[in-house]
Amino acid sequence: MSNGTDRPSYGEGRDALMSAVMRIVANKGLRGVTYRAVASEAGVNHNLIAHHFGSLEALLTATMERAVERAISNTELALFADLDERYADTLIASVSSEPEVHLFQFEMLLEARRHPELRESSRRLYDNYVASVQDGLRRRGLEADDELCSAVFAALDGLMLQFLTIGDPEKIKAAVLQVGNLVSSTLKKTQDPKNHHVPAGA
Predict the structure, then answer these.
(1) Topology of 10-189 in CATH?
(2) How do the pLDDT tens digits run along the chain, 202 residues long?
(3) In angstroms, rounded to a whole number, what is the distance separating the alpha carbons of residues 26 and 33?
């Protein structure tokens, strides 16, 4: 919470508000998000919420999009296709350094079940992540369908939730590497010419 001595400049107000929302939702859930609480946490006048976003709902949507951008960038998800030790270390380090970014997303996904107006932004969250997984594979010259990319992301997402709640980074790292082994094995099988049968008489 800001102590008021180093309030952000006007131009920084938008970013300050979104960062404040991430911290509040991560610690208190959506019920903690009020005009007064967000403004106090950000160290700005609450009128800036309406000025920059129009409403708390729009602020939450924008914050969700920002959280996804930061998570994808910080965990190098678009380059995840190697799923090696370097990637596993990067993923765990990123979640450790900014847990509020990831906790915010998990909280918002749970809230979307109770608040239908949040479901579209939650759907876009998953779509963005799955598209990044697919892009990462393509960078290696590998093609994977939406179902496989969704399954891979679901595995990584679940592992990061375990890490945030239970810890044990070595166990999580080993599981991430196992996901990588499964992906490599699956793609090798689907792209091996021996597995493509030529119909009789062709």
Answers:
(1) Tetracycline Repressor; domain 2 (1.10.357)
(2) 444 445 545 457 889 999 999 999 988 888 899 999 999 999 988 888 988 999 888 898 888 888 878 777 766 655 566 678 888 888 899 889 888 888 888 888 888 888 787 788 788 888 888 888 888 888 777 788 889 889 988 999 999 999 999 989 999 999 999 998 888 887 777 666 555 444 444 4
(3) 11
